[in-house]
Design a protein that fits this description.
This protein is an alpha+beta fold. It folds into 2 domains: about 10-100, no CATH class; about 105-200, Lambda Exonuclease, Chain A, CATH 3.90.320.10. It contains 7 helices and 5 strands; from the N terminus they run H-H-H-H-H-E-E-E-H-E-E-H. The chain has a 5-stranded mixed sheet with strand order 1-2-3-4-5, sandwiched between helices. The longest helix is centred in the last third of the chain and has 24 residues, at about 190-215. It is globular. The protein starts with a helix and ends in a 32-residue tail after the last helix.
């Protein structure tokens, strides 16, 4: 866990968090790409993707609460221009007319032995005619420095572990597409890496169970605190967490 107290706030207390313009932009671009892959190959052009952005935004903002407050300090026109720029970078990273994805926004889950039910959504799953599996995830931010690549790959190995345990086949390739700076992070997972990932998940689960038993959810200060919505009730910032729910 990055921060046990944040886990408590989100999972046990179920505290709401204000939406961010950056996160919403990521959702918008993901939705446009999902719509794009719903078209036949010849229609998956850059021009069509840009044409899809405005109606996709209209649909998204209609079902997102707090949009007006979100853009009080953010220029909406510039925000939309930056979303168009992310689409341009996507087309520089790959050609969506050259292949057909097997599944989009694929929900996967697996009940771990002596552990939790783990689950998640894979942005795109590509399965070659030869049976090789590729997991693709889009990131609208910039690629991590080399020292932080392993942390980014943990999420992808998490998905690969679920597919391995449910399908009996280790994915051939994990691919992160960073639209923020037009970079790729590619890995070919091994059985040893996935077993290690499984062990790490079980270790985290053990820590969570201990916190449940003791009622102690300690904050863990890091650079991620700068983006946390719960600083006012965090002891690291002079706050007091609410009582644990019954």
């Amino acid at each position: 866990m990055n921060c046990p107290l944040l886990y408590r706030f989100r999972v046990i207390d179920k505290l709401s968090e204000p939406p961010s313009a950056d996160a919403l932009k990521g959702t918008l671009v993901h939705s446009v790409l999902e719509h794009l892959f719903g078209l036949v190959r010849l229609e998956r052009t850059s021009e069509r993707a840009h044409d899809l952005l405005q109606p996709t935004w209209d649909e998204l903002k209609g079902k997102t609460s707090g949009v007006e407050e979100m853009f009080q300090d953010v220029d909406l026109d510039q925000w939309l221009i930056s979303a168009h720029s992310l689409l341009d970078r996507y087309f520089e990273l790959e050609d969506p007319m050259s292949f057909d994805p097997t599944e989009l926004e694929k929900f996967v889950e697996y009940q771990m032995e002596d552990g939790p039910m783990i689950h998640g959504y894979i942005d795109r799953l590509d399965i070659a005619p030869t049976g090789e599996i590729r997991i693709v995830d889009y990131k609208t931010g910039k690629s991590p420095k080399a020292a932080y690549e392993e942390k980014s790959l943990f999420q992808m190995r998490f998905y690969a572990l679920i597919l391995w345990r449910t399908l009996g086949k280790i994915p051939k390739r994990l691919q992160l597409l960073y639209l923020g700076d037009k970079n790729r992070l590619i890995s070919e997972p091994t059985e040893a890496e996935l077993v290690k990932t499984e062990g790490k998940i079980l270790s985290i689960w053990s820590d969570i169970q201990l916190s449940y038993e003791t009622g102690l959810w300690k904050p863990k200060k890091s650079k991620l605190c700068d983006w946390c919505a719960h600083q006012s009730i965090c002891p690291e910032f002079g706050g007091t967490p609410p009582p644990l729910p019954e």
